[in-house]
Amino acid sequence: MSAQNSKGIQTLLDAEREAQKIVQKDRSKRVKDARSEAQKEIEDYRKQKEEEFQKFEKEHTSGNQKAEEDAGKDADEQVQGIKSSGDKSGQKVVDDLLRVVMDVRPEVPDRVSAPTA
Predict the structure, then answer these.
(1) Other beta carbons less than 10 A from residue 5's beta carbon
(2) How confident is residue 86, by pLDDT bands cut at 50, 70 and 90?
(3) What pLDDT is stored for residue 22 in this prediction?
(4) How many CA atoms lie within 13 A of 111 on its CB side?
(5) Residues 108 and 114: beta-carbon distance below 8 Å
(6) Within a 10 A sphere around the Cβ of 107, how many other Cβ atoms?
(7) What is this structure's pTM?
(8) Angle CA(21)–CA(22)–CA(27) in degrees, nearest 5?
(9) Where does the pLDDT of residue 114 fall: very low under 50, low under 70, confident under 90, or very high at 90 and above?
(10) 114 Cβ partners below 8 Å, 6+ apart?
């Protein structure tokens, strides 16, 4: 009977080991499934937040675009004003510059004493 008990105990131990292997495989599978499910949820969340950011950015950059257009128009108007001013008085400025450069009148500075002979 002891051989039979020993054989029965061995069979039970073998069955227990087999059951542990099955349980371990199942745990590993559940962990992998949970990990992949979590990764999928993270990707979905990331996509959702990216879409929200794009929407936010689009709403708030449109105001900047309008400001840029207004600044560009204002700059163009100022450039046109400068050009028209240059067209009106440009020749007078050139004439004045040429007159000053060509009409040289040397003067002795006050700091320098006049040469004595």
Answers:
(1) 9
(2) confident
(3) 93
(4) 0
(5) yes
(6) 5
(7) 0.42
(8) 95
(9) low
(10) 108
